[in-house]
Specification:
Layout: E1 16-36, E2 39-59, E3 66-71, E4 76-81, E5 85-91, E6 97-101, H1 108-131, H2 134-158, E7 170-175
Parallel strand pairs: 4-7
Antiparallel strand pairs: 1-2, 2-5, 2-6, 3-4
Length: 193
């Protein structure tokens, strides 16, 4: 058997900046009860734990992927990025752990395997749903802000524009949709939650 790529139909331009990676272990539980002609054959229970990695990225292909504003009074350069999205979910099924407890009158190979396969089929969607929850996206943003600020400050420093007379004193990073407390300057680095 030979596998090969016969051709690439088209290459699409794409520019995404991965701002955070989260390693996690997704644990799912399931139960399957069975009775035959009124006889209870017990409930098979299974626990599936699968390691995974979620990549969060900011899309830089838009017309204005980063919006900059400079406040002369505070000498703060504000950089506002589009809100990050889940770029990719890697599921490491080769490292999965499964515990199956078959019902008293059931076979592990049959009822347990079917239950395990049903749970495995839903792992990717469950991880993606968890990763797209507002709390998870907010945590990714919180981890990314200081890294993006250092990234931008590095460029400003090499250009001789950071922490010099008349230059930028600090960089504040925000994401579209960050809540700002009433009365706060939109240039503040840390959004209110």
């Amino acid at each position: 058997v030979r596998d090969f790529v016969a051709g690439i139909n088209s290459v699409q331009p794409d520019l995404k900046l991965v701002i955070a990676k989260v390693d996690l272990i997704k644990t799912m539980t399931g139960e399957s009860a069975k009775s035959v002609m009124g006889w209870d054959l017990g409930t098979t229970r299974a626990v599936l734990s699968v390691p995974a990695r979620v990549h969060y990225a900011v899309d830089l292909t838009a017309g204005e992927p980063v919006r900059f504003r400079y406040d002369r009074a505070s000498r703060v350069l504000a950089a506002e990025f589009d809100a990050p999205q889940v770029q990719a979910v890697e599921v490491f099924f080769q490292d999965k752990r499964t515990v199956i407890e078959p019902g008293w009158g059931r076979l592990k190979d049959r009822s347990g395997k079917a239950l395990q396969e049903a749970m495995e089929a839903g792992v990717y969607a469950a991880i993606k749903r968890d990763a797209e929850a507002p709390e998870a996206l907010a945590a990714a943003c919180d981890k990314a802000r200081p890294i993006l600020a250092r990234f931008l400050e590095g460029y400003l420093s090499r250009a001789g524009l950071l922490r010099v007379e008349g230059g930028v004193e600090a960089v504040a990073v925000r994401f579209t949709g960050d809540a700002v407390a009433k009365g706060d300057s939109p240039l503040l680095q840390q959004p209110r939650r």
